[in-house]
Structure formats: C-alpha cells, structure tokens
C-alpha cells in the first residue's frame, strides 16, 4: 500500500504540467549537448555534402527545438482542455479581428517595400550614384518607423507598457523575433561564424535552445501573473519582512524590486550599447558620415517610436522591421546560393541545403593556401578549436540568458492569454530560425569568396570593398586600414602592387563588417548592399526600441512609482518614462561611440548578467514555493555580483581567465552561486507569507487564472483590482504579530491571476 501510494502519479493540472515540462527539458538537454559532444566523430560522415557534425549543430538542433515547442504546446493544450471538461477555450473577438486587420496591413506593407527595392534597382541601372541609393534606403526605413510611431501614439498606461495585452501570437512572434535578432544576430552572427567556424555555432545552439526554456519554464507564468515588468513580478513574489536591531520591522520586497531593476539596467544597457554601435557601423558606411555622428543620428528612429507610443508603437514597428530584416538577410544568401554547383546542388535557392559543397571547397582551399605559401597554417573551418567545456559553457549561458532577458520576457506580457503567450514563443522561434538557418550559409559563401578571389591576388587588383571598409576601420591590409592600392603597397612595404600576392595573415576583416560587406564581396548589385544596410538598421533599431522601453519602464514604474512617489498620476509617470528614454539613449550613444568591444561580445556579456541575476529568482519563484525574499536578495547579490566581478576583472582588470573559461560565458560561475545562495538562505529563514504562497498557487492552477476568459473580461477584472489596490495601505508595526496581519501595497492574488 505504501509503495502504491508513493508511485501514484499526480493527475492534477499542475502535476501533469510539471511532468510534461520535465520530460521536454530532458529531451532538450540530451539533444542540445549530446549531438555537439559527438561532433568530431560525426564530422567523418557526410550528408548532402555536409559534414554531419557541423550540420547537426547548424541546422538539425535548431529545427529540433522548434519541433519540440510544437509538441509541448499540443500536449499542454490537451491538458488544459481536460480541465475545461471539453469546453472550447474562447479567444477574444477583438484579438481575432485585430489579427485579420494586421494581416492585411502588413501584406500590403511588404508589397510596398518590395516595390521600393525594385524601384531603387531601376535607379541603379540608369546610373544613380551608389551613395544616393544608400541614403534613400536609410531615410525611407527611418521615416517609415517614425510614421508608425506617430500613428501608434498613446497616453494609456496599458498601451504604453504592454500594448493593451491584445497582440495576436503570430504578430507578437514577429515583433519578438525582431526585438531578439539584434545587431548581434544580423550584423555579428555570420561574421562570428566566418571567423570561428564550427565554434561559432555555440551562439546558434544557445540562442535557439533558450526559447525552449522561455516557453516551458517562465513565459506562461509571467503572463498569468499579469505585471508590467519583470522587477514587478519579483517584488510581488518576494514579499517578506525583516526585523532590524531595535525592533523595527521592515518590508523587503522593495529591496528585491530595486536589485531586480539594477540587474535589468546592467544587462539591458550593455545590450543597448551593442545595438547603437551596430547602427553607427551601418549608417557611417552607407551615408558616408563619421562613425560618432552616425551613432547619434541612428537614435532618431528609435526615439520616435519609443517616445510616442511605448510598447504599442514598438510592437507594430518591430513587425515592420522584421519584414525588412528578414528580406534583407535572405535575399543575398539566395542570390549566392543560386550560383553554386557542387555536384549535389545546381542553382538551388534553398541556401541551407546548398552550402555543403561550399564547406568542402573551403576545406580544400585551406590546404591549397598552405601548399602555395599563402598561409603557414590554417585552422580548419569545420573542426572545433575550443575545448568542449568552453563550447558547452557558452551554449548554457546563452540559453539561460535568453530565458532571463527582461526586454524579451516583456513581449509575452502583451498577449491576450497564457495560451497565446506559449504560442507566441513558438512563433518567435520559427521567425528567428529563418535567419539562423541562413547565417551558416551566409558565412560559408563569404569565406570561400574571400579565400578564392582575394587571398593570393596581387595588391594592385584588390577589390574596392577592401578600401571602402578600410575608411571606417573595418578592414585592414598588413596591419593598416588602407583606402587605396598605394596605401596597401606602403603598408605591406612593397615597391609595387603587381608582384606581391596577398597572404591570409595580411587581410583582417572585422566580424561586424562581414554581413554588410558580403554583397559587395560577392559582386552583387549595390541595391542588394543597400537592402542589407536597411535590414541591419532594422535589426539594431528594433532591439534598441525594446531595450530602451525595458529600461525606462523599470525606472519610471519600479523605481519612481513604486519606491519614490506611489501617488504619481499616469500622465506624470509616462512623462518620466519618456524623459528617461532620451537620457538613456544619449548615454548609450556616448558609450557606443567609444567602440568598447565587438558587438557579439557585448551581447554575450548582457546574457551572462541577465542569467545570473534573474534566472534563479524567476525559476525558484515559480517552481519552488519555499523560496523567500531573503533568499532572492542573497541570490541576486551573490550570483549577479560574482558574474559582474569576473567580467570587469577579465575585461578591464587584467585578470587571468578562471579555468580558461571566456568572459562571454561568465554566468557559468555566477548562476550556480545565485541558485545556491537563494536556496540556502531561504531554508535558513522563515517561509514566505501566506498571501505569497496563495499567489504562487494561483500561477499554477488553471481554474483560477482566467485562461478561459476573453481579453475584455480580463481587462474588466484588472480595472476592478487596480481600484481595490489603490484603497489599500501597507501597515507595518514594530511587532511581528502586526506584520503578519499587514496587507502589502503590491499586486494582490486576484491581480496576480490575470
């Protein structure tokens, strides 16, 4: 009887959901780490010309993550249907109508943009200067984003903070993808793969795998809670009191809120600086202005959207930006793909099926360059150079960081329901995969083009793009950024440019230049290069929009309104938020103008800071009822503090790497410390108060979450709850008995269930 009771399955909604999440995560971990562990062995096998180990990490694993989310959604919705006793879940009529309207609008918008690109192609054919075409691309796209910002302006708090919570899943997925695919993905990803080869695939595996964590572990529960920001959830989840020396009892949720806001600021500002930096690279190249001036010029498009319409304007702008960036990224890759004839494919436009022959050609050219004396040694492009622990550490930090970034999690506050939030995550990953499946092909095509048509050529016939990007410091020949053949000859200490053949070590190309330079490297029309610039600008600005909004909302809502002036009107809070937007944007531009590091490194730092600071508090807050305020505070201070210390010490303090682990994977140290501190301190201190435990239960209980309510009914409940919350006052006395009876002036259980 005891064994029968012990092994009896919990068939409640929470029990079944929890088992499903555990099963999905076990499969996820097995694939994410099992296949890369076997790369050396599987690279000896070939599939359509691809080394199988490389192809698994570049294409198979990301696609598998997408399939895993589809399975998870299907099974989880089946569990929820069982709770409804066969009653279908009602979608809000307003959300369905909005979906239909948006579909028509963005189809027309896409057609208009394609027509604009064709028109610019015609202008190029009739002799319009290249720089004029580049300027038209930049002006048109910035103007379009500003127009959307003006059309979406709002003074309603729900619209400004969470886009009215009625964004359909497919469009929220597009907006999240644009928010996610920053300058790091668009500008830096292919460049990193170009430079690192196989090892760069850690970024693709980590960033796509992170969305499995988002969908299964965090996003649905944050949407069910119904807050405006991540720090607001942490403050409400981690309520508690501490008795100070002298007998005074104080509420510590404000401390948790403050620390969560500090974490948000640290990771978001680092990420924002990277986006502004990439904006400067693109604008300076295609308009021909100084990098420092370009950095500040690019802020205009960002501020128009963020200032006027908040999350509502940013959401609809990001959908438009996704359309541009994905067209801009895939068109050059398709153009290069159709020129390939490798024995497996001929004129095949499906780029991620074609570049196997290109990879083989790269491997042969590497050997050939050594034989011809053009290189003393070439690190094989397809083989791992890092230790496996380095690859796995970076992958792990990027996965966990993805599930911890405030500006990404904020996007799932905008959906009409919990089910819509889950579906939105799946759509997000689907749209992201379009770019990430293309990036390895993009890098391979560019690599072969440089190896074949640049390395081994006389200085006198170097292509013009080498000098064009030399003007802005993104290429160098013999250690100098050159702008002409004469400068190249001088840099290489040669008498003439006709005899000396360029060696591999003589040419350096910045990882941040690779994507925007590839159309010119491949000899594609300048209109394609301008299209890529517009896409890169869209990627950087869309992410900058989301980051600025996350930072300003946290400062205005979580710091100013919650901790400084809780009687501030909506109008005053929105004004504070808009002022902060401008100040933060200017600070980020000033930092980016100093060129602190390459784009991808800055972004990886942000992921580590977010992972170590947010992930333990979020996961334990949802999945472990015993986690309390003291534990959360200790976890954030220890985990985030250790990660930040390691980053600063290795980047600026001259520290040696701990165990050889790069600082881009700094969270591998801070994350376990954050979890351990949270758990140990929580167990050594008193449990959370009853109202917090009730809130945690409400996050897990399908019946009381309002999942079967329409968006209109949810909004009505929210308005009533906000009116009730305004009438409540926090009562804290000098005795523990009075504290236990006090009602905190934070969102109550009913609000938490929305």
Automatic annotation (TrEMBL):
Chief location category: membrane
One GO location term (cellular component): plasma membrane
Compartments, as annotated in UniProt: Membrane
Alphabetized InterPro entries for the sequence: Na/Glc_symporter_sf, Na/solute_symporter, Na/solute_symporter_VC_2705, Na_symporter_ssu, Sodium:Solute_Symporter
Boundaries of every Sodium symporter small subunit domain copy: 12-80
Parts of the chain that traverse the membrane: 20-40, 52-75, 96-120, 132-151, 171-195, 201-222, 255-274, 286-307, 319-339, 391-413, 425-445, 528-555, 575-593, 599-624, 631-652, 664-685
One of the record's GO molecular function terms: transmembrane transporter activity
The keyword Membrane is assigned to this record: yes
Record bears the keyword Transmembrane helix: yes
Membrane topology qualifier: Multi-pass membrane protein
Keywords: Membrane, Transmembrane, Transmembrane helix, Transport
Similarity section: Belongs to the sodium:solute symporter (SSF) (TC 2.A.21) family.
The name this protein goes by in its record: Sodium symporter small subunit domain-containing protein
Natural source organism: Polarella glacialis (Dinoflagellate)
